[in-house]
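Lab notebook, bench 4. Still working through the backlog of constructs that have no structural model yet. Next entry is a single chain of 157 residues. Request: give me the structure tokens for it.
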Amino acid sequence: MAKTPITLRGATLLRAELQRLKSADRPAVIAAIAEARAHGDLSENAEYDAARERQGFIEGRISEVEAKLANAQIIDPKFLDTDGRCVFGATVDLEPDGGEATTYQIVGEDEADIKEGRISISSPIARALIGKYAGDSVEVQTPGGLKRYEILDVRYL
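Model written out:
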């Protein structure tokens, strides 16, 4: 199976979520199921049904996070030697034509958060940036149309 790139920060967040799911959420839902069972007839017990549904969600998420961590290729951008080329994990300062400069970090799909300035490696902007250097211009086909950006700086934080 192919490895999925993820930053060190993203792997840490996934591990923390897994720990929370196993140590807090799972025991809480088990207690909720036990309490709902104590109320008697399970066939008409909405609390029991809701708790069982929540348990299914938690168990599914635990499996999903464990699989993501097992297939993760953890990359720490600080230790990349790329000669200034834009690669996974890079923090890139961009200036769109006629717009205000913005900064993005290229991260894995699970870590992407546009409000925090983190874009997925599979996004159109990230795909256009990969392999480019500071000073290069890129054209990106976005849902809003063709956009041009100048790469001001490429950093590895």
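Notes after review: The mean pLDDT is 89. The radius of gyration is 22 Å. Flag for follow-up if needed.
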